[in-house]
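User: I've been trying to design a sequence by hand for this structure and keep getting stuck. Would you show me what you'd pick, starting by listing the structure so we're on the same page?

Assistant: Good idea, let's start from the same input. This is the structure you sent:
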C-alpha cells in the first residue's frame, strides 16, 4: 500500500498568540516560550527519523521547523511551501479578537459561526483554505510514499488536517486541541488522510520561559 507517515506541528508560541491578535499571513516571530517549545518538540522527535521537513515560509513556522531539523541525527531537507501558510485574514490581520468583535461585529458573527463561504475583506474563506491545504498535503505526501515527513504550519492549517483526517465538516464546531508545538500524527494514502494521534503535549509538561529574551 502507498503510505506516507506525517508528523504535523503548529509553530511555537508568539507574543501575538498571547495577546489573541490575529496573525494570519503577517510575519511574526516566536517569543521565548515559543523557542523553548520548538526545542522541546525537536528533542521529542530526535529519535524519530524524518526524510524531509516542509514548512510555511513565515518566520514563526520556519524557525520551529529549522529547530526540528537541527535536532535530527541526520539533518533532513528543509523546504518552504506557501501552501502551508496560515489562512489569510485580510484587513482583520493585526487586530485582537475583542477588537474585531467591537469594530466589525458583522464579520465577527460570521467568523464565530464558521460560515464556510465568508472571507475576511481581502482574505481567504474556510473553503478556500481547505482546498489549499488538501491540495498541498496530497502533493507533498505523494512525493514521499514509504517515507516519514514533517509539516510545520499554523493553527488554521492544522485544523484543516484534522477535519480531512476525521471527516469533519468545514462548519462543524472545533472540539480538538491546536496547541503550539503539539505533536500530531497522520497517515496519507491516495484515498486521503487518517488520524494516528493528535495533540501530544507530553514534551511540554515542564514550565518554559515566559519572559521575552
Amino acid at each position: 500500500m502507498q503510505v506516507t507517515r506525517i508528523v504535523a506541528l503548529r509553530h511555537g508560541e508568539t507574543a501575538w498568540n498571547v495577546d489573541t491578535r490575529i496573525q494570519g499571513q503577517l510575519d511574526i516571530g516566536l517569543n521565548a516560550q515559543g523557542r523553548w517549545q520548538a526545542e522541546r518538540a525537536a528533542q521529542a522527535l530526535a529519535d524519530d527519523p524524518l526524510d524531509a521537513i516542509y514548512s510555511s515560509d513565515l518566520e514563526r513556522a520556519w524557525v520551529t521547523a529549522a529547530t526540528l531539523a537541527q535536532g535530527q541525527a541526520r539533518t533532513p531537507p528543509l523546504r518552504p511551501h506557501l501552501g502551508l501558510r496560515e489562512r489569510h485574514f485580510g484587513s482583520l490581520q493585526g487586530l485582537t479578537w475583542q477588537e474585531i468583535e467591537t469594530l466589525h461585529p458583522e464579520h465577527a458573527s460570521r467568523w464565530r459561526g464558521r460560515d464556510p463561504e465568508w472571507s475576511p475583506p481581502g482574505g481567504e474563506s474556510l473553503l478556500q483554505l481547505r482546498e489549499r491545504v488538501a491540495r498541498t498535503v496530497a502533493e507533498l505526501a505523494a512525493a514521499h510514499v514509504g517515507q516519514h515527513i514533517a509539516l510545520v504550519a499554523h493553527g488554521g492549517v492544522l485544523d484543516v488536517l484534522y477535519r480531512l483526517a476525521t471527516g469533519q465538516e468545514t462548519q462543524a464546531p472545533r472540539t480538538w486541541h491546536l496547541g503550539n508545538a503539539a505533536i500530531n500524527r497522520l497517515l496519507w494514502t491516495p484515498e486521503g488522510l487518517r488520524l494516528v494521534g493528535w495533540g501530544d503535549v507530553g514534551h511540554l509538561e515542564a514550565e518554559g520561559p515566559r519572559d521575552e529574551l
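That's my pick for every position. To get oriented when you compare it with your attempt: The two ends are 48 Å apart (CA to CA). The longest helix spans residues 126-142.
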